[in-house]
Amino acid sequence: MPMPEQFTDLAKRVNNWGRWGAGDERGTLNLITPECVARAAALVRTGKRFSLALPLDADGPQIGLIPGRDNPRRNMIMVNAAVMGSDHAFRTSDDRVEMGLQACTHWDALAHVSYEGRLYNGFDAATVTEAGAAHCGIDKAGPIVGRGVLLDVPRALGVERLGDAAQGRALTPEDLDAAVELARVGVRSGDIVLVRTGAMSVLKGGDKVGYNFPSSGPSMRTVPWFHGHDVAAVATDNIAFEVYPPERDDVQLPVHLLHLVEMGMLQGQNWDLEALARVIMVSATTRVMT
């Protein structure tokens, strides 16, 4: 099925192929310059640390819709074992985890999706094989360090979370602008944007099905917003990343295709932003009161 005209026109507008050279496999991560990292490091004030990752346990977010995307299974492979021999005092314990990576907090590599036989920057999709991705794999990303900007969209819109049990909300540029205004911080070139939709509260409430479907998230309308702000990477607190069911019946997961293939921009899923959002909210309230 050919792509709809709205999609192809948008793809041309946001395409980054060749922007960092014909052989580039990192895409918008190139926007995180040493100067960006230095400016980000200078912003540290309190030194508070947060894990934004889901626990790696059997109670993960997957519900068996797609074969192979199973939740983590952890097994102890040794417990106080005398691996150096019983004559030595040394003992060790160790374990192993087996899982589908979609069950954890992760970045989608640029090789994760393709269409019309193409990956980002024109690499052939056939170069992704059972052995892995010869081009645009996550190994090409390298360390990702920069300024993170949390856009708390539900709080900006005055709701607990976006969407309802029947329909996800397709985020708009206006939604993102409202969250930027609330945060009182501009989004600038090289930033890593974290978009909170409130979906993680559904998963933490024990409703895995509700967490999986429907999904509120970025829409085709937000793609030029991320492109225009030169965002280096974007992550959400849901499992689909973008709004799902999709905006159009004639193209599936269009934001994946536009971000990963056309723009070369990493996108993340299953990010737990709840604790971070609460601390930022308290901090913002304290600033206002004082």
Structure description:
The chain is an alpha/beta fold and 290 residues long. The chain contains 9 helices and 9 strands. The strands form 3 sheets. A 5-stranded mixed beta sheet has the order 3-9-8-7-6. Strands 1-2 form a two-stranded antiparallel ribbon. A hairpin with a 2-residue loop joins strand 4 and strand 5. Helix 1 runs parallel beside helix 8. The radius of gyration is 21 Å and the shape is globular. The chain starts with a helix and ends with a helix. The C terminus is likely disordered.
How many strands in all?
9
Q: Which structural category fits the helices and strands?
A: alpha/beta
Number of helices: 9
- What order do the SSEs take from the amino end to the carboxyl end, as H and E? HHEEEEEEHHEHHHEHEH
Question: Outline, from the CA principal axes?
Answer: globular
Main pleated sheet = 5 strands, mixed
Q: Please report which band the strand proportion falls in: under 5%, 5-15%, 15-25%, 25-35%, 35-45% or over 45%.
A: 5-15%
Q: Point out poorly predicted stretches.
A: 285-290
Share in helix: 25-40%
How big is the Rg?
Answer: 21 Å
Mean pLDDT: 95
Strand order of the largest sheet: 3-9-8-7-6
